[in-house]
# Entry
Amino acid sequence: MNARLSLALEGADAMPSSGRILVLNAGAAADLSLLPQDRVTIVQGFRPDHDALAARGYAVTPETGGPDGELAAAIVFLPRARAEARALVAEAARQVSPGGPVWVDGQKTDGIESMARDVRSRVAISAPVAKAHGKIFRFDAPDGPAFADWRAAESVPAPGFVTLPGMFSADKPDAGSALLAGALPGDLSGRGADLGAGWGWLSAQILAQGRVGGLHLVEANHSALACARRNIADLRAQFHWADVALFEPGGKLDFVVTNPPFHTTRAADTKLGEAFVRAAGRMLKPSGQMLMVANRHLPYETVLAETFRDFDEIKGNAGYKVFRAARPRVSPRSVAARN
# Structure
């Protein structure tokens, strides 16, 4: 059990005895065993975590948006992005009935201390419980718009595009994606995929290549994909809320373009990008190619050599490197599928 949550929920009056309990941003491994599962609704828009929680029997939805003041209580697990964290707290305060408890839990590295100060400036909060490099505190949902200005607000990161807080590079197109867009070959053609498409800026640059016949936008963040649907009005685009490692395009592709993530926490983890490379190799035709951008310091060369017979760095700068990889190696999974 989350040690902080366990301590916070001790006591007969810690949680209402009836009514729905909203849980925002719980991860796949979240231990919610002290909560009555039949009363819990989890909002989780990251597809792998969503599916893992659903497999454990929880009611899970990818989006917030319930009625005002109808829930008994809420628990918010803080994300790293400050604007997104504020939006989740505001959403919990809006949906919980006035006077109902809202718990906010997070690591120090996720800004829990500054969040406690910011919430305290608006409403009274309980004494925070500190444990395991983090804290949890409670406030009672206000009867009024105390957090209305914290609600998620759209940004315009580039002309014709919208984003929401917490998305990757929500304020402007990522520098790596811009470098990759500049390296797209002029003869790019056929059916392809943008793995980790985000809110769609790179996909729009791919679709600007007139010979592209179709493009799968594959993104695990539900809100980012919803923005991509708004940002791209092109009949060649197909949108998939999916874990890249599990996605099947329904036929081998001519190309894959990707700017893969390399962390879900503050620590870099090349395993995420490696999974994208392997997924690309699995999806491509023998004649297909992958175009990928990566941070200069991340060592993807080994997995590229394992997955493709040919790869080269075709463009780069001090911060990023762009690879072109071709002739994917046939994996046991691919052979089994073919047979």
